[in-house]
Amino acid sequence: MMGTRCSGAALQRNMRRAAFLVVAMLASRGARADAPKQPGADFIDDARLLYRIAACGDGAPLDAKVEKIVERHCKAVGERLERFREVYFAKGRAWFDKVVPRDVPKTVVYPFGGGDLLSALVAFPDATEITTISLELAGDPRRLETLGPDALERDLGALRAEIGGLISVGSNTSENLSAQQQNDLPGQVSSFLLGLVAGGYEPVSMRYFTLDDAGDIHYLEQSEIDDADRDAAAHKPRSLKHDWKAPVFSTAFANVEIQYRKIGETQIRVHRHIAWNLGDPYMGAHPQLLRHLAKKGPVTLLVKGASYCLWRGDFSLIRGYMLDHLAWMLSDSTGIPPSYARVAGMVQETYGDYDGAFLEGAQDSKADEAFIDLWKSQRRRALPFRFGYVDKDKQAHLVVTRPKG
User: Fold this and answer.
1) Contact 157, 190 (CB under 8 A)
2) Where are the alpha helices (DSSP H) in 91-171?
3) Do 338 and 382 form a contact (C-beta atoms < 8 A)?
4) Cβ atoms within 10 A of the Cβ of 347, count?
5) Which residue from 116, 138, 234, 244 puts its CA 20 to 30 A from 176's CA?
6) Strands 269-275 and 129-134
7) Are 323 and 366 a contacting pair, CB within 8 Å?
8) In this structure, is residue 15 part of a structural domain?
9) Bridge partner list, 269
10) What's the average model confidence in pLDDT over 211-231?
11) Which of 355, 360, 326, 354 is nearest to 340 (CA)?
12) Residue 5 belongs to a domain
């Protein structure tokens, strides 16, 4: 109904937003005008607020009360990000251009990729659709505008700690990813927007969604989000894994779609993050993800820092999907072990050096021994940077897995 946007809670929300940004920020580069109208509530205003304050993108003016806080935050983030760009976007570009074939699918799937749109953009800058999957829910973007200066400074500091590994070596710890679920700033969304900043992209729209029984996307309308908020107020949301911290926001904000574009270009690309437990018990009881992924056809796959889950028997469903649909895959040693790859008709090519698993619990296993033998069986191919886990001797390594022929 006309006029309801500026009444009650909506009016208070708009006033809080005004305390952060000038009107020019919300209309910058005409993103709203260029984006076609689509189903579901669009949180592009919140995305742009996070893009400016948490991810340090854009130079739009801020309210004086928060400008110094954000300036300090962005100085610390900017220094790390500049070093990251130099290593991966600049010096590393030649390696990726040489190793990644030009004809790999532009649809990328990144299982166990919590918060890490950044690495996908580094490895596959021509991708038009990127899907990351992890235990972490994307996060509620609306909380930023409710924070006072002290809370903002505290939460930005927590965010820097949580994403420190990501913007240093492109990898995060499970502890940091779990902790993001309880920050007032949405850790996953903030990390994704940081990846856009690093790669020179900007968000165009941001919507949340669920997967129906057929695996198709259903974008959430505001009324559905309101219902989920009420449910979360009555029943505390649970995490997707028993030892993961429970989210402090409703499950409406589990899965996010961010449409984005290269600054100065018009082509719209899509990143989706899906919060899902990739273990067999959960996947068997919730088959919607596999149905969704299968509809993409052959894909480019990325796996790194995946805690060696794909070595285990209880991750057979996601591993089977990957082997059935991969056109080309880049991973560290937490990817698909050689025994599974060979049976599926794959070949694997090694880069860097590998003498054993990084995590002690994975060392001396059959998969570990197989990877050691794989590296020994091939000529050494150079890898000038770390991209994912190192091995037990802190050596950088990667492996390409692809179908024979």
Assistant:
1) no
2) 93-99, 117-123, 149-163, 166-169
3) no
4) 13
5) 234
6) parallel
7) no
8) no
9) 260
10) 96
11) 326
12) no
Is 18 a residue whose pLDDT tops 80? Answer: no
48 with 23: CB under 8 angstroms? Answer: no
Instruction: Supply 25's token pair.
Output: 């920020």
Residues 6+ apart with CB under 8 A from 53: 20, 62, 66, 70, 73, 144, 152, 156
Q: Determine contact, residues 157/76, Cβ cutoff 8 Å.
A: no
Q: Token pair of 383, please?
A: 């890898």
CB of 263 closer than 8 Å to CB of 202? yes
13 in a structural domain? no
pLDDT tens readout for residues 104-125: 999 999 999 988 999 999 999 9
Cβ pair 357, 308 in contact under 8 A: yes
User: What range defines the domain where residue 135 resides?
Assistant: 25-403
Q: How many domains does the chain have?
A: 1
Res 369 pLDDT > 50: yes
Three-class DSSP category at 289: helix
Mean pLDDT taken over the chain: 88
Instruction: State how far the Cα of 269 lies from the Cα of 260, in Å rounded to an integer.
Output: 5
DSSP 31-43: HHHHSPP-SS---
Residue 403 and residue 361 in contact, taking contact as beta carbons nearer than 8 Å: no
Lookup result for tokens 């749109």? 117
pTM: 0.89
Residue type, 31: A
Q: Which residue has the higher pLDDT, 75 or 173?
A: 75
Please give the pLDDT value at position 179.
58
Q: Which residue has the tokens 């197989």?
A: 370
Domain membership flag for residue 289:
yes
Task: Report the percent of the chain where pLDDT is more than 90.
Answer: 69
pLDDT at residue 374 greater than cutoff 60: yes
